[in-house]
Amino acid sequence: MADSIQSKSEDIGKLILRITIGGLLLFHGIFKLIHGVEWMKGPLSAFYLPGFLAYGVYIAEVIAPVLIIVGFWTRPAALIIAFDLFMAIVLVGRQAIFTVKQAGGGWGIELEAFFLLGSFVLFFLGAGKYSITKGQGKWN
């Protein structure tokens, strides 16, 4: 009985983590759907990367969060988000890595780090039982 309570608690925790990471990141994706990603072409070109890569953010911040929320292909979606956030830190936030924000005293890249590390946690934990695939298969 204790094992079933622990298992249920772990699955509820995974569900809460999925909704948190996917739901909060989806706001960023919707913002980019509305306002576009043209501004990203500058930071990409500074690293000699083609501007069309900016459109990959729609996969990482719209499609992948939806997959995570519903618990389908959770692990690959989490890796996509982790890569997206790594690139966001490299392209835009690298100067803030060793800073503390003046307003509130938080780490300069705390939001990016939250999504990056949270997506790694999802990759290692998987979707859990409360997903459309019920945690079955290696991709969930």
Give your account of this protein's structure.
- With 140 residues, this protein is mainly α.
- The protein has one domain.
- Helix 4 runs antiparallel to helix 5.
- The protein starts with a helix and ends in a 15-residue tail after the last helix.
- The relative contact order is 0.17.
How many angstroms does the end-to-end distance come to?
A: 25 Å
Percent of residues in beta strands? under 5%
Largest β sheet strand count, sense and barrel closure: none
Question: What overall form do the CA principal axes indicate?
Answer: globular
Number of domains: 1
What letter string, H or E per element, gives the SSE order? HHHHH
What is the number of helices? 5
Radius of gyration: 17 Å
Q: Helicity range of the residues?
A: 55-70%
Please report the total strand number as a whole number: 0
Helix/strand-derived category reads mainly alpha
Mean pLDDT: 93
Give start-end ranges of low-pLDDT stretches. Answer: none
Task: Spell out the key features of this protein.
mainly alpha; 5 helices; 64% helix; 140 residues; globular
Topology (SSEs and partners):
Elements: H1 2-35, H2 41-46, H3 57-70, H4 74-93, H5 110-125
Give a quick rundown of the structure.
The protein has 140 residues and is mostly helical. It is built from 5 helices and no strands. Helix 1 packs antiparallel against helix 3 and helix 3 packs antiparallel against helix 4.
